[in-house]
Description:
Alpha-Beta Plaits; about 25% strand; 4 strands; 2 domains; alpha+beta
Amino acid sequence: MSDELTLYEAMYIVDVTLEEDEQQETITAVESAIAEAAGQLESTLLFGRRRLAYEIDGRAEGLYMISYFRGTGSTVQHLYREFGVLEAIVRGTVVAANPDALYREPTPVSETPAPAEEVTEQPAPQPAATEPATSEPAAETVAQESAAPAEEATQTPAADDEAQAEESTETEPTEPAQ
């Protein structure tokens, strides 16, 4: 047998009708049960008070908890026995956890660094009244050029592929099949 301990996830629901200190005692009892059975507690997370999908023993809500721990099969068996003994536990289960899919507490927005914003300067538009009459066609060209990127941005990739296919068939002569 291997000496390596398996990572487990214990999800259990604590009775919300209990006082806060009694709920905390129940959570501590679960953590102690893991340690008593030679398990190594990684973390315990509070998922909060939530409505149950269906009533269990007349309870419609529960305090959802998740504990990650490393242990053996006997650690899991001991924890299931503890779930049955503790009256404050409405329901509980233990599964082997995927280390890559562990739940992590979300980082508060204030702690995450904001990405640096790129500032691009755009030239200020020139008033058309100050330009000579000969440059009006150039202004129309600029307006057409600025409208073209907007049209391209609205096309889907499939539309781009169709447009390229049409261009290639229009420019290349086709040879009859022999």
